[in-house]
Amino acid sequence: MSPVIAIAGGKGGTGKTTIAVNLADALHRRYRLLLVDADCSNPCTRTFFSAAKALWQKEITLFKPQILEERCHYKACKRCVELCPEHALLAQPNKPPALIEDLCNGCSVCQIVCNYGAITEAQQVVGHLYFSEVDGNLHLLVSELTPGSRKNPVVVHHCMVEAERLSDHYDLTLVDCPAGTGIDLYLILRYATTAILVTEPTLLALSDLKKLSQLLLMAGGKPTILVVNKSGINPNLEKQIVSEIEAHYVVKIPYDHRIFRQVSSGRLLTHLNSKYAQIFDKLAEIVVQLAHLRC
């Protein structure tokens, strides 16, 4: 698998996607790049590459038990209910068990343990993957959770498996990670060779960044780049963040109200002016160095 750069930030709104898309823009001029949007609850990398050509899409499905009432010995047997590891089947008086779909993880234990063949396989669609071409050097893999579904880890897992399958065709894989410090982020960090931690000089961001650093250690520890977004709004706290978070490199992006206008309209910062192009070129050089790529 090509080197995987995970772009994470703990809390939402620190600028992970902004960093991901602009870093991709800086890198793909010299390298073949796969940009993965693994923030399946709120994927928005496509906003910045609206002209990308769609190549394919896939459904992400899970096993869903379908109980055949005519075969179910529900009056005498509760085996599926008792052995369901997620307690997703609910025993009912004078009725077959009821499925609590949000709890079902698709393991199919219920079907395996049923002695009467009363449980058949149906499918629940929990998400989608979309693959598109921005240009010859940049492709985009986007994961999207089905509205109302709670199967984020399942969708992220399928997304990373697909990214691994595709990655041999690329020099680098960039992953825009979901917010938080949950299992879905841990799944991504296990693949990562380098982590970019995106933060801002606020106490809430520092608190989440500490949790993120712990999760990174749980995933084996990675070479780390700390990106301080909105730099300059709280210099003292900014110094505290840099001193408390042990990163191999620190890159700062100054606060600028023009950034909000540029990002909210789906335009890249690298196209705003040369100052931001230089910042992301510097970040790209660090990534290349850590990934041991030839210039």
Structure description:
The chain is α/β, with parallel strands linked by helices and 295 residues long. It has 2 domains: 4-60 and 127-291, P-loop containing nucleotide triphosphate hydrolases (Rossmann fold, 3-Layer(aba) Sandwich); 69-117, Alpha-Beta Plaits (2-Layer Sandwich), CATH 3.30.70. Helix content is 33%, strand content 28%. The chain is built from 9 helices and 11 strands. It has helices spanning 16-27, 79-83, 109-113, 152-166, 183-191, 203-218, 235-244, 257-264, 274-291, and strands spanning 4-8, 33-37, 53-67, 89-92, 95-99, 119-135, 138-145, 172-176, 194-199, 224-231, 249-254. The protein is elongated. The mean pLDDT is 92.
Quick summary:
By secondary structure, the protein is of the alpha/beta class. 33% of the residues lie in helices and 28% in strands. The protein has a nine-stranded mixed β-sheet, with helices on both faces.
> What is the N-to-C order of secondary-structure elements (H for helix, E for strand)?
EHEEHEEHEEHEHEHEHEHH
Give the % helix: 25-40%
Strand content: 25-35%
CATH class call of the largest domain: Alpha Beta
CATH homologous superfamily designation of the largest domain: P-loop containing nucleotide triphosphate hydrolases
Structural class by helix and strand composition = alpha/beta
Main sheet overview: 9 strands, mixed
Mean pLDDT: 92
Distance between the termini: 19 Å
Number of domains: 2
- Fill in the CATH topology of the largest domain: Rossmann fold
Number of helical elements: 9
Instruction: Give start-end ranges of low-pLDDT stretches.
Output: none
* Shape type: elongated
Which CATH architecture of the largest domain would you pick? 3-Layer(aba) Sandwich
Q: Give the strand order of the largest sheet, numbering strands 1, 2, ... along the chain.
A: 3-6-7-2-8-1-9-10-11
**Got a strand count?**
11
Taking all Cα atoms into account, the compactness measure Rg is 22 Å
